[in-house]
User: What shape does this take?
Amino acid sequence: MSIQEDQISALVERRASARIAGGQARIDAQHAKGKLTARERLGLLLDEGSFEEFDMFVQHRCTNFGMEKSHPDGDGVVTGQGTIGGRPVFVYAQDFTVSGGSLSKTMSEKICKVMDMAMRAGAPVIGLNDSGGARIQEGIDALAGYGEIFERNILASGVIPQISGIFGPCAGGAVYSPALTDFTLMVKNTSYMFLTGPAVVKSVTGEVVTAEELGGAAVHASKSGVADFAVENEQEGIETIKKLLSFIPQNNMEPAPLRETSDPAARVSDCLNSIIPDSPGKAYDMYGVIREIVDDGDFFEIHRSFARNIIVGFAHMGGRSVGIVANQPQMLAGVLDINASRKAARFVRFCDAFGIPLVTLVDVPGFLPGTQQEYGAVIQNGAKLLYAYGEATVPKVTVTLRKAYGGAHIVMSCKQLRGDINYAWPTAQIAVMGADGAVDVLYAKDIKADPGHAAEIRAAKKAEYEELFGNPYQAAQKGYIEDIIEPRNTRFRIIRALCSLEGKKQDLPAKKHDNLPL
Assistant: This one.
């Protein structure tokens, strides 16, 4: 064997060793927990044969607490670039088989490198997290490494899409990077996120709680709202990331990908003409409306289990990617509350940052009343959604289906928040409040003065109020909505509106940055 052949043979052997840096026993342990390895995850995520790995031979530089005895290649994270559906992406996947995936300074340098490359290339960055946290043996160096990653998350925000997949533990300072990214996905029963673990919680507060109860996927998907998706297994998680990418652009300067469809833009949906119940207090399913108006009935929902009184997600209309925000009458009558407001506000801001048009479907009776909401700052949280819509410069098409009362009407992309094209169904009621509440305020003295005829007075005044505000014509007469449309034509009217707004340009006042009511 020549010297050159010997060197090539050594390289092949070194690469093979690096690919199982943690050893077969730890790989087997990972599989026993129902988890894939970092490389297996990337193999499923990326197009076959597209992965190009960086820094395979990087080793940690720590000499504390016996760390000098072992220097595995790769140091606990696999980084590189590849393609998903032919589109370039940059990736990193923490390797739990190497030091529990704990973050060292060199590991952070690898992650920062691919994030920097993603920014320069204008391509999404996807991080697959499976880590025990900061590497204790490195002390301040490990903390500095986290700080470097967080700063890049911040600089990349609104420039390139950032997606976090939580496929194992994610605790302490490690949780802040996913929190700074655009979308976070968790796997049920095998992943968790929390700042302080169960042992610390017990020692400080005396509360006994499991890791799953404290920070599992179900908790963060339904209660805290930290996770946008909670999936059954890693394979489903990876497919979810792939589908999410199909709706969003490579960066903030490029359009979202178009998708071919055989679904005619002018398709009518006769069922929409009868979907609104005769009784104003009766619920209907907003998902039924969404499926009727989007291409092929395909709606990709975000945050499905959190704040279910509002629906957000992506779809295609006429082949274009759109973000949909819709009140859900089946949950809390579709009212806005703290969680619904911040859920929708974050989604609106993402769509605006990446040039994705917004379609808003309105059926909202107002904001949820009560001390819990007021003490929890529903005013400020409602203002987040108002601010997000008012700030957004992407095309905005709004359709009011039934109720739009009070401040909630304003918040849901009304004309005064620079809504571009606002439609209403004939069933729409746009007013300060509903008829019952309005009569109680406007005619309280009359009713009190004649208690014997209170019912008749209420009925007459309610009918008078409903004749004036129980329809969308007053709003149309004043130019607050462009047209009153037949429900069956909603899909066509929205698509045509989006076509007319495709070249929209809107300037904002010069400023360093806004001061969103956080």
Observations:
- The chain is about 40% helix and 15% strand.
- The chain has three domains: 39-245, 270-428+471-500, 434-470.
- The first helix runs from residue 3 to 19.
- The mean pLDDT is 92.
